[in-house]
Amino acid sequence: MxxxxxxxxxAWHFLTTIPLSRTHHEPTAPELAASMxxxxxxxxxxxxxxxxxxFGLTAILSPAVVNVxxxxxxxxxxxxxxxxxxxxxxxxxxxxxxxxxRLSIMRDPRIGAxxxxxxxxxxxxxxxxxxxxxxxxxxxxxxxxxxxxxxxMVMLAWISPYARSEGGxxxxxxxxxxxxxxxxxxxxxxxxxxxxxxxxxxxxILLAGALIVLIxxxxxxxWFAGITGDTLGAMNEVIEILFLLxxxxxxxxx
Length: 254
Prior knowledge:
The chain is mainly alpha-helical. Helices cover 76% and strands 0% of the residues.
């Protein structure tokens, strides 16, 4: 594969469990930053896989079972990366009084009671969102949901400082992240949303998403003095769940 394909491969390998290539495993910091421009594309591919599974499973199983299996598939495809980030972030918030204490707790691989509870509630809310989706919105919502979450991670990473002075998993991605990468990811997401929700719906969804990202930015600055890989994962989970829950409401506004 050529040099131009390397960022896509890195994004795919980081965000999914499916190997595409056994080479290209020594990315540079600029390539890691460039890979974030591909995040919504990876999200759309994950969403496409969920749609295929949804069509196949709906023919033989009840809606409740199908929705549970879609959540299981999503977790398997992404190795629970973002769920782990959400749990660690909640544990840090619950157990620490200062940003330094919270960041230290988040490094602990063990999950605490608050993290486990928050993770359970997030899965329940995701299930409720899928169950409540109107039939006519199901295909575009399931397709775009993973892309929306990964776009939010790119946006939050771009506008936020990195919290850990000693570095961490997300640090190399952020070093060379630029507005061009953000613009590409935003264009990809906008096109996907426009195809599923129309121009007005797309504007409302993007505005709501940007507002949530800004709230996340303010929260991370206040509680953690910046972002980490865990807080980016938590943002993905929050955005995806709110997307499922709020899209039907947003689309009623016009």
